[in-house]
Amino acid sequence: MVGSVPNPPARPPEVVVMVGLQGSGKSTWVARHLAATHEIVSKDHWPNARHRERRQRRVLNELLAAGRDVVVDNTNPAPADRAPIIEIARAHGATVRAVYLDVPLHICLARNENRQGRARVPLVGVLAALKRLVPPSADEGFDRVDTVTTGP
Ligand SMILES: Nc1ncnc2c1ncn2[C@@H]1O[C@H](COP(=O)(O)OP(=O)(O)OP(=O)(O)O)[C@@H](O)[C@H]1O
Ligand SMILES: [Mg+2]
């Protein structure tokens, strides 16, 4: 075709791994910053399903195979939670970024208390995540780690 424009060089897909306690504001941040560009994967989308972890990995694989940018919106508190996501991302040649919501416990709890019904997480759940929480680090294999704070 005359005057056809060559395709732009292929850009590898990006996987964003959210990290933060329940109520820290991950889903709010994703809605504000990534909803227009990234597919949102979250085990919260299947609250009653069995094998949610396996299902999430399968969906992540499928989206990356289709060349999509993806954000994984779970608490992902420990390196062991993040390692399988990083591994899948790498297998697809994707870049991997962590976004860490570094929000004090009392603020997370207050935000959680303001939630209604099922959206409100039991306190033990937040404390269990706190116990496991290790801020993400480039050593785990992230190309980039962004930290979001509550600010003044
Ligand atoms: N920057 C902010 N300032 C004030 N309130 C916020 C902010 N971000 C989120 N919130 C409020 O805090 C509550 C929890 O936010 P959100 O649902 O985004 O948290 P989450 O980290 O996704 O929690 P979960 O892990 O349980 O899904 C919501 O009611 C939201 O409106
Ligand atoms: Mg959320």
UniProtKB/TrEMBL annotation:
<dbReference type="GO" id="GO:0046403">
    <property type="term" value="F:polynucleotide 3'-phosphatase activity"/>
</dbReference>
<dbReference type="InterPro" id="IPR027417">
    <property type="entry name" value="P-loop_NTPase"/>
</dbReference>
<dbReference type="GO" id="GO:0046404">
    <property type="term" value="F:ATP-dependent polydeoxyribonucleotide 5'-hydroxyl-kinase activity"/>
</dbReference>
<dbReference type="Pfam" id="PF13671">
    <property type="entry name" value="AAA_33"/>
</dbReference>
<dbReference type="GO" id="GO:0003690">
    <property type="term" value="F:double-stranded DNA binding"/>
</dbReference>
<dbReference type="GO" id="GO:0006281">
    <property type="term" value="P:DNA repair"/>
</dbReference>
<protein>
    <submittedName>
        <fullName>AAA domain-containing protein</fullName>
    </submittedName>
</protein>
<dbReference type="InterPro" id="IPR017101">
    <property type="entry name" value="P-loop_ATP/GTP-bd_All4644_prd"/>
</dbReference>
